[in-house]
Amino acid sequence: MAMSCPLNRYLLLMAQEHLEFRLPEIKSLLSLFGGQFISSQETYGKSPFWILSIPSEDIARNLMKRTVCAKSIFELWGHGKSPEELYSSLKNYPVEKMVPFLHSDSTYKIKIHTFNKTLTQEEKVKRIDALEFLPFEGKVNLKKPQHIFSVLEDYGLDPNRIPENPHNIYFGRWIADGQRELIESYSVKKRHFIGNTSMDAGLSFIMANHGKVKENDIVFDPFVGTGGLLIASAHFGAYVYGTDIDYNTVHGLGKASRKNQKWRGPDENIRANLRQYGLEKYYLDVLVSDASKPSWRKGTYFDAIITDPPYGIRESTRKTGSQKEIPKGMEKCPESHVPVSLSYHLSDMFFDLLNFAAETLVLGGRLVYWLPVYTPEYTEEMVPWHPCLRLISNCEQKLSSHTSRRLITMEKVKEFEAFLGYCSCSVPAAFPGSVLSPAIGFST
């Protein structure tokens, strides 16, 4: 009988934004790198401190090469609700696991991190001195140590009621930092080509992580806009492709979205955006196309579909068509014909999107998209479903007191079959100019 690999305990220090997106991101990335989310914590809520069991340090490092929701990860050596409990926990930690990092030829430093409280330098030194019982034999090096250790103290979430003593104290060996700097380096404010609804850089990377995008994947965005989601996927080594119904956006023409700029420049386009970040080699193409009438051969092409469908706030939902019924026997329009733009109801759009994903994703491929909702009437039954797709996560981002959008992640779990139709029930419009149905399903 094969022996199972022992799991080491790690402490994740999480960022305090996009709280609902953090857990699905960490679960998706662990799954991507061959790990499994295992934790003794019952809830994660708003706490920045998460204790996880991870098979190896390599998986922990790979996790941090991708996450934008976590700041740092530590190999957890001790944990307690008081200094005495922490010291007792450290004394029980196996010495053989400490020795490789504490021997006489090594250099180290100890850092103090507090959440929701500021300590004086004197208080920090006192906490470091209290750890003298640990078998450190190396030399202290504050500038370039080989090993960094941290004491992390949690003083709760209420800045108006900071306790005198921490709720929890942790001690661990620093392993790696996350990719928080990507949020600034890929900021839309610095981007060459933007539109009215260009996706925030942080959310773009979160979506790519929820979609488990990896090197050499093919990622598709059917509502590509200015390509913000393609950039995030290309950063992780995926080849990217997109379509959009708006000719001017795809070709970088027309009025500019920047303040004090009237018209777009000659090189304002999606390819130029990827070139800006050194990612042009991952650009496959972007076409003018109607998502309601996909022009694809039958087959599975994509490892992930990651998209932000238009839903009537700053961008209207449109499709090509004619107000008049097409005469029987007329199989195609003359070349001189320019299709008119019709409204594209949200219920139809999400029906088409899920059906398209079920047909074109590889098995195990993921669909990640935004679903707008009218908050007072929202229920989980309103999330569109498809028998070939399994719901992985459903995260809310509030937009106003009555509206929000939910980041939906689904995974293809079985081969596509033709379905006869879907059932839906209309509800009040989620946003101006849109219609959202609560149960977009499919029945055979």
What is the percentage of strand-forming residues? 25-35%
Largest sheet: 7 strands, mixed
Q: Would you identify the regions where 5 or more consecutive residues have pLDDT less than 50?
A: 1-5, 313-318, 322-341, 420-444
The helix/strand class is alpha/beta
Q: Cα distance, first to last residue?
A: 44 Å
Number of helical elements = 11
Secondary-structure element series? EHEHEHHEHEEEHHEHEHHEEEEHEEE
User: How many beta-strand runs?
Assistant: 16
Arithmetic mean pLDDT: 85
The helix content, as a percent range, equals 10-25%
**Overall shape:** elongated
User: Rg, please?
Assistant: 26 Å
Give the strand line-up of the largest sheet.
Answer: 2-1-3-7-6-4-5
Domain tRNA (guanine(10)-N(2))-methyltransferase TRMT11 N-terminal: 9-180
Keywords: Acetylation, Cytoplasm, Methyltransferase, RNA-binding, S-adenosyl-L-methionine, Transferase, tRNA processing, tRNA-binding
EC number: 2.1.1.214
Domain Ribosomal RNA large subunit methyltransferase K/L-like methyltransferase: 190-320
Describe the model.
The protein is of the alpha/beta class. Helix content is 22%, strand content 26%. It is built from eleven helices and 16 strands. A seven-stranded mixed sheet has the order 2-1-3-7-6-4-5. It has a seven-stranded mixed sheet with strand order 10-9-8-11-14-16-15. The chain starts with 7 loop residues before the first strand and ends in a 32-residue tail after the last strand. Its EC number is 2.1.1.214. Part of the heterodimeric TRMT11-TRM112 methyltransferase complex; this complex forms an active tRNA methyltransferase, where TRMT112 acts as an activator of the catalytic subunit TRMT11.
